[in-house]
Structure formats: C-alpha cells, structure tokens
Amino acid sequence: MPKTYAELLRDARTQVREINPLQAAQIREGDPDIALVDVRESSEWEQGHIPGATHIPKSYIEQQIEAAVPDRDRPVILYCAGGVRSLFAAQTMAEMGYTNVSSMSGGFQEWKGRGLPWTMPVLLTHEQKQRYSRHLLVPEVGAEGQARLLDSKVLLIGAGGLGSPAALYLAAAGVGTIGIVDFDIVDISNLQRQVLHTTDRVGEKKVDSARISITALNPDVKVVAHEEMLTGDNVERLIAGYDVVLDGTDTFETRYVLNDAAVAAGIPVVHASVFRFEGQLTVFDTPAGPCYRCLYPTPPPPELAPGCSVAGVLGIVPGIMGLLQGNEVLKILLGIGETLAGRLLLFDALDASFTELKLRRDPECPVCSENAIAARAAGRPLPVPSFGGDAFVLGGDQAGAEGPIAGEVGALR
Amino acid sequence: MSVVRIPPVLRAAAGGAKEVEVGGSTVGDILAALVERYPGLRGQLLTDDGDLNRFVNVYVDGQDIRYLDDRATKVAERDTLIILPAMAGG
Hints:
The complex is a heterodimer.
Chain A: H1 5-15, E1 17-19, H2 21-30, E2 35-38, H3 42-45, E3 54-55, H4 61-68, E4 76-79, H5 85-95, E5 101-104, H6 107-113, H7 126-131, H8 133-136, H9 142-150, E6 153-157, H10 163-172, E7 177-181, H11 206-217, E8 222-226, H12 235-239, E9 244-247, H13 252-265, E10 269-275, E11 278-284, H14 292-295, H15 308-311, H16 316-334, E12 343-348, E13 353-358, H17 370-377, H18 399-402
Parallel strand pairs in A: 1-5, 2-3, 2-4, 4-5, 6-7, 6-9, 7-8, 9-10
Antiparallel strand pairs in A: 10-11, 11-12, 12-13
Helix pairs in contact in A: 10-11, 10-16
Chain B: E1 2-5, E2 19-22, H1 27-37, H2 42-45, E3 56-60, E4 63-64, E5 80-85
Parallel strand pairs in B: 1-5
Antiparallel strand pairs in B: 1-2, 3-4, 3-5
C-alpha cells in the first residue's frame, strides 16, 4: 500500500525515540562520547550548528554514517532544522542496525530558541574546499583542522636538505605562514636533495628560490623570508610568534642557540639530523619531553661530527627525515596523535629500519629543568656551556666556507 | 655476547663494522672490551678518566644508561647496545 507523507511520519514517530533539545543537551553533558549528527544540507550547516556535531546530510547517511560512527551500539542523537528529517534518518540508521538512535524534536530551530550554544562553522572558499578536499574528508582534520592549519605559523630553520621537503608538503597542506631562515644562496651541489630549488635558480638566494616554489605550489601560503643567520643575538626575534619551529640546520651551534631560545619561549622544535644513510628525529617540547641539551649537553669535537658537505649524504635521507619532521609539525598544529616528544627515532636507509629510543629530561638541565625555569623567571638564567668561533662550524654546506658563526651561545637574557 | 651497534660516524674507527659482538656483563665491561679491540674508538667514546663522553649516549634495549645504572648497567646476553652520538647534518 502506498503511504502518504503523514502516514510515513506517523510510522517514524512510533519507531524512533524523540528527545527535546534540553534533554539532548543534558544527555550530552552526562556522556561526552555520545555522537551528535547534523543531517541538514550544507547550506544550512554553514549558517550555524551545534558545537561538536558531525555533519552528514540526510542524503548521505547510508553512505557515511558507518565511517563516522563505526560502533552500532554507540548512542547517537540526530538533528535537522525542525525534527522531521532527523526522524527519517534515524529510521534508516535503525534499519542499518544502530541500536541507540534518537531524533531531536524541534531541531536546530528549537535548540537556538532555547538559548542553547551554537557555533558558526569555519568557512573555506570554494577553491580551498577543492584544494584541501582530501584533508576535509579526514575526520581528524576536517574544515576546522584545515582552518587551523591556514591560521598556523611554522618557522623553518634552513631551506636545505631537511627544510626543502618539509616546506613543500607543509605548503601543500595549507600551513598559512611559512617563515624561512636562510642566508645562503642556491649552489648546484644542493640540488641532489634540496628539492625546493631548481637548476635555473642556482646563484639566487635560497629564501627567494623557496618563495617561488612555495607560492607556485600554493598561493594561500604567506612566505616570510628571514635572510640572515640564526645567532644568539637574533634568535628570540626570529622565532617570536611562530607556533612550531622545524630545525633543519647543519651546525651544532645553531641547534643549541635555537634550543635555548625555544625552550624559553615555549615553542616546540621538531628536530632532525642526517649523516650519510642515517637520520635522527625527535620533538623537543618541554615539559612533555626533554630539550636538546638534556640529550646532548655538549657538542662533539668537529672531527666526530662532519656535516653533509664533508661526509656526504644519500639525498633521499634528508628527504625522508624532513617529511617525518613535517608530519610531526602537522600533528602538533592539529593537536592529534602522539608526537615524538620524549622519543628519538633512528632511521637507517640501508636496512630500511627504524629504531625508537626513550629520551628523558635531565633534572639538572641548565635550560629546561625546574631550577633553570625559576632562574630565568628571576632574571638570572643559569649559565650554559658557551662556545663561539669556528670550532663548531661543522662543514655546513656554505657555513664552513663562510667562516665562524657570529654570536656566542650564552645564557639567554 | 652482546651486539653493539656502531654509528656511522664511528665506523671508520671500528674497521667499518656496523655491528660488533662483544662479551661483558655490564656496559662498562663491554665498552672497555670494545675500545680494546678498536683503540681508535677510545678517544671518541671515553674521557681520559674512562667516563662516557657527554656528546655520546648509550642505550641498552632502548633505555639511556644514564637513567639506569650508567656504566654499571647490567647487560644480558643478546641485549643490543646502541651508541648514539650527536649529529648536526641537515
């Protein structure tokens, strides 16, 4: 027997449990794990929605609900504008085996009318929705995560072997501001691994070359060029305002200078270094893990730590490590997953193996220990091993040829 | 015998070996046996007093010996020691 709309609606009401917005709000308060699904059209969602709701238009419920709510016994509340479409959607979910689905009577209209909280969704442009569509499909990123990336600022120390792949993928991912600290020019020997740069840009400044590649890939990204060498004198100014720093330098001095300033400023540093076929990777993000000085209180003598220009490197190794750094950056920005804070990952390209080591904070660390923090707050920072001159300029690509790094690693003011 | 993994920067001083099998029941014993076999490693791993250089970390089964018993850390048969020196290359 064909049924009228009124009969269909009556049937749905007998089969689906209905709750009003006040009840829905109470239930959510008592059980934050409950799934709230907005089944309205996109044009309605964009005018505002309940915070924390998942948006699946009614016409996509069958296709998308299993991915959004894999557990068929998880409690689900559906809502639409007035409480009718959510009833029919709930009926569909019951047919699919969902055991605990309610429909919110009165819908979003009544929710708002009762003064319950609602929020405006992040609006991406049409072009951004297309460009980042594969991110938007991932629940852990979505429109909110994408908006967060677009609003994020990442500083790359060095546009070299590690910084190049990271810069490209972070730009592609839509990180809104990418700062680059590099005083170097593009040399033809860089091109074996530094994929930001091109043959026709040999002799140009790396920051300019990087800007061309990044902007060509994604014009959403604002590139901030810092054409200078990171030193104790400028580090605080250079890192200020950035959410995360990606350390892709090739000297110990720069790494210590960066560490000390980043700990003081509370900015996480995603760290990697490479040698021939091997790489090390971690995240220095105190107090979640140690800082660079906890791991290596003093640098090795130069003959024990040659850089890439002396020892050579398989070009793909910094490529892999730089992308793993980019992965850590994205996780920190999005607030998802487990970062490598407190863990060191070793990569061996010849074995294709990863080894994980546990890192600990040094309770005596002159930079990140409780004592060091208190001393800094009191305006009397603890002394750190100080070194200057060329003893620790370890054959960075051009750094070695450029002479000693200016500035001294001293206590941060 | 325990396996000691030699980092790339130290391999030249260890006859090019990537891994070396060394006997000993503590980290100190094993490092002593290692530098005896490869004297070129001594200055790179140990201070004049025989302590581990601060720019080198040693891990036994993924744990830093400085947070275990340092050189007295017991090493079981078949444990792997990882020598981890600081690297700067980027």
